[in-house]
Amino acid sequence: MENLFRSVNAFFAFIAPISDLLWDFPTGFDAYSRIPVLGHLPFAILLLVGVGIYFSIRTRFIQTMNIGSIVRIMMRRQSSNTGVSALASFMLGLAMRAGPGNIVGITGAISVGGPGALFWMWVAAFFGMATAFMESVLAQLFKEKNHDEFVGGLPFYGRRILGGWRIVGTFLSLVFIVYALFNVPPQTFNVFTALGTIADTVAGTHLARQSSVYYLIAAGLVVACSFIIMGGIRRVTAYTDVLVPIKAALFCLMSLVIILINLPLIPYFFHEVIVGAFAPHALFGGAIGTALAQGVKRGLMSNEAGQGTITMAAAIADNDHPCEQGFVQSLGVFFDTMVICTMTGFIVVMAHVWTGTIDGQAWESVRASKITVYLASVQTLVPASVAYIVKIVMRVCYALFAFTTLLGMISFAEISANFISRSRAFITGIRVLGSLVFVPFGALTVLAGLELPNLWALSDLMNIVMVLLNVPIVLLGQGLVYKALAHYRTTRGAAPFVSEQIGVRTDYWTAEQRNDVQRAVVSQPERVES
After folding, report:
1. Residue 322 half-sphere exposure, CB side, CA atoms within 13 Å?
2. Is cis: bond before 26, omega within 30 of 0?
3. Rounded to whole angstroms, how far apart are CA atoms 26 and 45?
4. What are the pLDDT digits (tens) for 74-108?
């Protein structure tokens, strides 16, 4: 079995250099790298931030809308049996956004770029909210009905915007399926990392990966994933509706307790973040570009604005107007970065572990392990009497982050696959691949004591590929979003939306479809004013 895994790892040996090349281009060129600040920023980051700023200006800063009104949209009772509610779509999107990257990714950004990276993460998220709005509205505009459910996302709006060629949508769908499924083994590894360390803590000793405990974790994970995934999107959203609030509330509550315990350190936190954003500590290279690059990159990869990944969740929602889901998913970016990622940043920065040692270990010896840095920071900030319990709770949160991301990856692959074929056999095949092939594969690598770094590098490569495919399509389709937003602002969302009003005929937003799902205007809650 180990020979098989090593063969897989060897097969993907060419991936890491390609991934690094795309992510770092053109910073590897001396002439570019010598440019102050800009020379630290690769093209992909400039592209994501640039379009975020551009979309913010064109939408008149749509991210400054009334959050309370968006919450009312999400809480509105669904009045049809088609699709899932706006709230369920938000939770499914957050299942993907709020993943292990919110802990290890943010810890990694601070470890490499210093506390100032968190400031640039906030900046990236602010502009990323506009990008999330744009791609989510396109997903809603071009969604299609599949019996009593909606399907849509990048392959569907990509096909329509790029001339209606079916081969375009098929290609985008295949790329996304590869992206999603090859992200499953790393997330499986993250679940094992969390649950394994909990078992170690409870047992009081380090358990070998071939121990019965690890086999029980593997069996339980495969059974749970297959049960939920094989039930389809509705079953997945039924579980994410429960698991996502639990993981978010548990993580935020525990983080808040840690922050309150260390209340006098809050001024130190803001000082380090603000000063570090413009005058980084020498330990982190002393260059503003390093903090900026780390903050922007990790922030955008955490909230996924611009990757087109969350468009699958945006498309399946039953909304009265396509812009509503844009508001909802934009709020997802805010919650992911401004709340969850900031909580992680509070703990790592306030612990100021880089100013000394961690349990006798020098900073340089532990910074490579992001989860070690995070848990060491937690332990530094809480009384020794409760450190044991707090670390277990945080590991449970980490496991839930990874598990819900796992469910989201496979579900989004299924939604995307609907573009290629909606036959029961094909869709079931995608579910089987995700839950009964890729999840067990990830589990087996853990049991074999291997991490397959080249396979994990494939997920990094696919992240940048998704950005390079999705952003140009959104730019080409931006005009339709502005027209839809103008309709929403003019009517305050109270008038029925028909796609012909903005110069395009879609599968769902037609006069015929809208007549079938007319809602009484008097029963509608207050609309978003943007």
Report:
1. 35
2. yes
3. 11
4. 887 665 566 678 888 888 887 777 777 778 778 87
Which of 12-16, 130-134, 282-286, 391-395 reaches the highest mean pLDDT? 130-134
Element holding 21 (H helix, E strand): helix 15-24
CATH architecture group of domain 2-523: Up-down Bundle (1.20)
Name the pTM for this structure: 0.86
CB contact at 8 A, 195 and 217: yes
Averaged confidence pLDDT in the chain: 82
192-225 tens-digit pLDDT: 878 887 887 777 777 776 778 888 888 999 999 9
Query: How does residue 453 score in pLDDT terms, banded at 50, 70 and 90?
Result: low
| Helical residues (DSSP H) of 283-383, grouped into ranges | 288-303, 311-315, 322-334, 342-350, 363-366, 370-381
User: Do 197 and 378 form a contact (C-beta atoms < 8 A)?
Assistant: no
Query: Are the C-beta atoms of residues 182 and 94 closer than 8 Å to each other?
Result: no
Phi, psi of 4 (to 5 degrees): -60, -45
In sequence order, what DSSP letters do the residues of 174-206 get, joined into one string? HHHHHHHHTTHHHHHHHHHHHHHHHHHHHHTSP
Question: For residue 126, which amino acid is it?
Answer: F
Domain boundaries, the chain: 2-523
Amino acid type, 374: Y
Q: Which amino acid is at 231?
A: G
In order, the DSSP letters of 408-423 are HHHHHHHHHHTTT---
E strand spans, 467-514: none
Alpha-carbon distance 366 to 358, whole Å?
A: 8
Amino acid at 206: H
Interacting residues of 78 by C-beta distance below 8 A, sequence separation 6+: 84, 85, 86, 318
Q: Would you say 305 and 471 are in contact if contact means Cβ atoms under 8 Å apart? A: no
Alpha-carbon torsion angle 67, 71, 72, 75, nearest 10: 180
Structure tokens, 484: 């839809």
Tell me the two tokens of residue 301.
């990869």
Q: What are phi and psi of 497, to 5 degrees?
A: -95, 130
Dihedral sign for Cα 507, 509, 514, 517, please.
positive
Question: CA 247, CA 393: separation in Å to the nearest integer?
Answer: 10
Cβ–Cβ under 8 Å, residues 113 and 290: yes
Confidence of residue 519 (pLDDT cuts 50, 70, 90): very low
Residue 180 structure tokens: 């999603």
